[in-house]
Amino acid sequence: MLFDTHLHLIYKDRLKYPWLNDFDTLNRDSHFDAYCRDAARLGIGGCLHMEVDVAEHHIEKEAAVIDELIDAPGSMMRGMISSCRPESDDFAAFLERARSNPNIKGFRRVLHVVPDDVGTTVTFRDNIKRLSGTGLTFDLCVLPRQLHLALDLVSHCPDVTFILDHCGVPDVAAGAFEPWRTGVKALAERPNVFAKISGVVAYGNPDTWTLNDIRPFVEETVDAFGTDRIVWGSDSPVCNLGGGLPTWVAATHALTERWSTTDREALYHINACRLWRL
Description:
By secondary structure, the chain is α/β, with parallel strands linked by helices.
């Protein structure tokens, strides 16, 4: 069974998603009941919700909506990664409120949608450092040209556990390995960084990508981090840009068919359960 560490849900009647106005393909509801139906057919046994960059004033409201889904009887959702604004002077108070919610397992601030200097300020880095010793993680969602900035943040926070989203967002369509390869290898040298095998199907040519297009990016990520520091994520519904959830699950099994049972289980669910104490 797969454990999905990167599920996005969209409830347009309850939350505001300003960025969706620029993405017609994704600008629609994506509800948990539909995901659960597909997950049961595809061998996904549990999941974490990943924040969807809601409007800033809806960050804590999004957590409340996801709380309802987690706390429902028999729910397959085991927790959430909350949105946050570490660049804000109000982050410390926000963190204290978040720490009172056991469903929140970590945080993410997407950094490739804001100027580079947002994530390089003393305020931002010191606020992420507040996660030290809390057991709460921070997801790094950056472009290849920003991987050195992610490394600077990791260096500033050696006692925080980071997860590099989407294999470092490689440009699969262009087959561009640099600066991606160098940046990923540098991050992998830090023992407090994990990598998430996710997202890559959305980065190839949507009409023509093949398994051989994404394979080298996945394999280099796995080689860099090792099978004890990788987790799997669907990136649903963003994966619809590259064929959808069934396509990505099938590709995952194809990419790992020659792995040992131990290594497959590590990626599929064991590492995630260990990382987030699920």
